[in-house]
Structure formats: C-alpha cells, structure tokens
Amino acid sequence: MERLDKIISEHSRYSRREAAELIRRGKVTAGGVTVRDAAAKFDPETILLTVAGTVIPVHRQHTLMLNKPVGYVSATEDPREKTVLELIREEDCYPALFPAGRLDKDTTGLLILTSDGDLCHRIISPKKEIWKTYMTTVQGRLTEADTAAVRAGIQLESGEQFLPGELTVLESGDISRAELKIREGKFHQVKRMMAALGKPVISLQRTAVGGLELDESLAPGEYRVLTERDIEQIFN
Ligand code: URA
Question: Ligand 1 — pocket residues by CB below 6 A?
C-alpha cells in the first residue's frame, strides 16, 4: 500500500506537492470516489485513479480502447501518415503503447492499444482465434448465397483460403449493409472477402474484438482506459 500523493507523482507529470494540492482541492478520485487525504493509502497494483477527470495509468501495463477515425494508420510511427498514437494524450502513452492488430487507414472503430506484449499476442495470434466483428457497407446486393459462402470459408482465385465466418445481412439493395464476424486478421481480409463475392467494400467499421464491444459513447478519435473486466470480455 502506498500514499496517494506518492502514487500520483510516480505515474504522472505532477510533483508530490502538486499531487497533494490536487487531492486537497477534490480533483482526485480512486475507484470512482473523491479522496481528499494525500496520506490515504492504496494498492498501486489495483487502484483506478483519475486526476482532474483524466485516468492516470498506474499499473505497469495498460490498455486503451480507441474509436479509430478514418485517416490514421495503425502504427506507432510513420514517415508520411498520421498514426493512431497521435490521438493519445502524452500522459496516457506511459508506458509505451502499440496497437494490438491493425485497421486500415480508411477503417474506423474499435482498436485496442496496449503496453502489454502478452495481451497483444493473445489478441492477434491466429492460434487464439479471437472473433472480430465488423459492420460493412458494400456495393451490390448481398444474398443468402453470400452468407453461405462466408459460412463455408471463402477461397480466393489465388488459392488463399479464409476460415469460415458469419455474415448477417442487415440491408440488401444496390448498396448493402452487413455484420461480418471473422476469427483471423489477414491483410485487408474483409475487403478481400467481400471483393471475392463481387461486393466491394464502401466502408468498414470494427464493432467488437472477442466479447468486447466498441463503447458507443466514444466519438471517433476518442479513447478510454480498459479495466481488467473489459480485458476479460475480449476472451469471453
Ligand atoms: N479487414 C480489412 O479489409 N480491413 C481492415 O481494416 C480490417 C479488416
């Protein structure tokens, strides 16, 4: 157990004295409750801490859910493009974060960023077969035949084979909308699957990774820290 002012100063840009002052002014919450005593003790391994409304990542590893907007690449650096890391405030980048998987520059939605290498592996490793859910708008009329083809596992002309997925058609017309669940993360996979059906993707949004759904309160470009319970949801 450690003093609250010490935990804040060790995990943020605030000095111990500034931390004590913020606590006194009622700007600090621990576990959702305002704490006004700088000497109050908490377990740094489990504390959920906010200072002036911002979550302070205290644990050695931390993980964020980003609602990725169009126009950003899923990389930590890029010589030409804007990266998703540029959407994360400096105080939330500690320790170094990286994207757990990739969404294309023009894909939106749920992107997990983590400093935890093991967690990243568990999310993206093909062997773990974590299902990813996408909402897609495509050109052309989606039919039962498309649903059956996805269920059987699409094979491209090149011979490349995708694992069986689940396609649920929500609107069918000259432009169709569908939910697609897949358990791989191959390069441009959804776009290549839909192109193979002759229905090119117009827009693509990821809405869930495993059992963890994109938080609808997050506007594009916004993010929040994931709790242990959120992380468990991924694997449920
Ligand atoms: N499949 C794609 O084609 N693009 C993405 O960004 C994600 C899945």
Answer: 103-104, 107, 188-191, 204
Question: Is the CB of residue 231 less than 8 Å from the CB of residue 119?
Answer: yes
What is the tens place of the pLDDT at every residue in 58-114? 766 789 999 999 999 999 999 999 999 999 987 677 667 899 999 999 999 999 999
Domain count, the chain: 3
Closest CA to ligand 1's atom 4 = 188
Atom 7 of ligand 1, nearest CA residue = 103
> What's the CATH number where 92 sits?
3.30.70.580
Examine the domain organization and report whether 160 and 184 are in the same domain: yes
Give the integer Cα–Cα distance in Å for 125 and 133.
16
Whole domain around residue 25: which residue ranges? 2-56
Phi, psi at 23, each rounded to 5°? -65, -45
Specify the CATH number for the domain of residue 142.
3.30.70.1560
Q: Are residues 203 and 225 in the same domain?
A: no
**Which atom of ligand 1 is found nearest the CA of 192?**
3
Query: For residue 36, how many C-alpha atoms fall within 13 Å in the half-sphere facing its CB?
Result: 3
Residue whose CA is at the smallest distance from ligand 1 atom 2: 188
Please, are residues 28 and 5 in contact by the beta-carbon 8 Å criterion? no
Helix (H, G, I), strand (E, B) or coil at 4: helix
**CA dist 175 to 25, 104, 163, 172, Å?**
55, 21, 25, 7
- 227 with 168, same domain? no
